[in-house]
Design goal:
Elements (H helix, E strand, L loop, with lengths): L7 E5 L6 H11 L4 E2 L3 E2 L14 E2 L2 H9 L3 E6 L5 E5 H9 L4 E4 L2 H10 L4 E6 L3 H11 L4 H15 L7 E4 L3 H13 L16
Parallel strand pairs: 1-7, 1-8, 2-7, 3-4, 8-9
Antiparallel strand pairs: 3-6, 5-6
Helix pairs in contact: 1-7
Length: about 200
């Protein structure tokens, strides 16, 4: 007998909150969880591996994916590169009954909300605005201009927290990852609408 389809969990939050780090911790300690690998037109950062951290594609290839409806969602992020979620791997993981997660930006989460409203949407929040700024500056992967642009975006992203079903505060990566997996384990139950609403890379 085929397994029952899983419920998709969507993780989003402001830039530099640690979404990718938390997702990596989930991948390491919970290999049973399937995590989508996004496509992006930006260049790899030091240490990033194609197909593991992202699928790094050309603008022309991204255009093809959009035109052929190969992406579940996509967006221009920080007014620069494009990011998107390949559709087929997500559908295959859910159909196989695996716990499945997307780690994406706010724009992408809103698109998925429209197409898959039954998913569980989790907001990863920083302990404070000051800590978010410290993390962004501390990672040293952006120019001053890019940091300023990301901080403007981050304020807008933080304001979207009420749109999400649950919030996890990223005080410590392992704890946040464990909280996320606990939500995923129980996420196969039907959504309960507004009752799930809550009281981040």
């Amino acid at each position: 007998m085929s397994p029952a389809p899983s419920r998709l969990v969507v993780l989003a939050g402001p830039t530099a909150v640690g979404k990718g780090t938390v997702a990596a911790a989930v991948r390491e300690s919970h290999p049973e969880v399937w995590i989508s690998v996004s496509a992006t037109t930006r260049a790899p950062r030091p240490g990033e591996v194609d197909g593991v951290h992202y699928h790094f594609v050309s603008d022309a290839e991204f255009d093809r994916m959009v035109a052929e409806d190969d992406l579940l969602e996509w967006a221009v992020v920080h007014k620069a590169a494009r990011y998107g979620t390949p559709r087929r791997p997500v559908e295959e993981a859910l159909a196989a009954g695996r716990p499945a997660m997307l780690e994406i930006d706010l724009q992408g989460a809103r698109q998925v909300r429209r197409t898959m409203p039954e998913a569980l949407f989790v907001f990863l929040a920083p302990p404070s605005w000051e800590e978010l700024v410290r993390r962004l500056v501390g990672r040293g992967t952006e120019t001053e201009e890019e940091r300023e642009r990301r901080l403007v975006t981050a304020r807008e992203e933080l304001a979207a927290e009420p749109e999400f079903d649950k919030t996890i505060t990223n005080h410590e990566v392992r704890r946040a990852a464990d909280e996320l997996v606990e939500l995923m384990v129980g996420s196969g139950r039907p959504a309960q609408g507004p009752a799930l609403l809550s009281d981040d890379t």
